[in-house]
Amino acid sequence: MSARFLQFAIALQTLTIFLQAVSAGLLLTASYGETLHGIGARVMYGASMLYVLAAVLAWKPGGGPARPVWQAVGFLALASVQVVLGVAHVPAVHLPLGVAMFGLSMLALADRTTRRLASAGSDPSPRRSA
Question: What is the pTM of this model?
């Protein structure tokens, strides 16, 4: 259960970062873009906090490795820097950092998905066929 929650949290974070890129485009072309991007920033930050919570739950009570906790804390730190840069209107750093965050989040999601599939394939318990 905690591994699925962790994967969900990473997927949600990745989606919210992608939607921030979409709303950044709207920021340049539509009157409501700034409002949408501001709301999206709060949602993305919340998704990063959820990722930390999911990683801690998969680690301590779930018995998983601590590595996802460090990754999640790193993402939360990047999200904090990203918010500060956005509020300060420093697009020269804000935009490339957003691209890097999306790439790193995609890598974390792919890694988590690969690990879940590998552990499901090595499950020694017999499965009942329908």
Answer: 0.85
